[in-house]
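In this supplementary section we document a worked example of the pipeline. Step one takes a protein sequence of length 192 as its only input; no multiple sequence alignment statistics are reported here. Step two produces a three-dimensional model, which step three serialises into structure tokens for compact storage. The input and output of this example are shown verbatim.
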Amino acid sequence: MAKGVCIHLLAAWLLLCWVTIPASGDEYGFEREVDRKLMAKMKKEKLSHFRFYWHDVVSGKNPTSVRVVDPPSNESVTAFGLMNMIDNPLTLGPKMSSKMVGRAQGFYASASQEELGLLMVMNFAFVEGKYNGSTITVLGRNAVFNKVREMSVIGGSGLFRFARGYAEATTNSLDLKTGDAVVEYNVYVMHF
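The serialised model returned by step three reads:
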């Protein structure tokens, strides 16, 4: 008889656990499925093309690109390990006096020992027009001596939620004396 009571108690305990665990998991879980009907409220996905100029100013009293990590070796011709934090203006034209439409905020780091290849991690934070307050996030490799470099658009915020696409960078000018550069960006973004 005692064995039968134990089996009933064990079965009741297992049933209780089976009922309460999923309920507590739903209440305290960090993931849940989203109703696809919510996606229907989003506008139709579209492809947008943005063209602007990225001003990397490392010289002067007010640089927009600041070295935060020196390369560990002075012998590296690529400055492998160097890292710069950026808050670079984005303008409509190649001159700094051109209308500013946003800022590139993030960092780049020398990530190649063989050639000058940068790891680029940045948000294009727009401050103009209907995209004011929205961002496009770019991550990728920038082999700076290639004529055109392509990097991935991996996301965004605001009007660029669920963004994906690519960015092409072409050097417009490079001052070898100061290290300042102007780069033309053509960004192709799929977004809602």
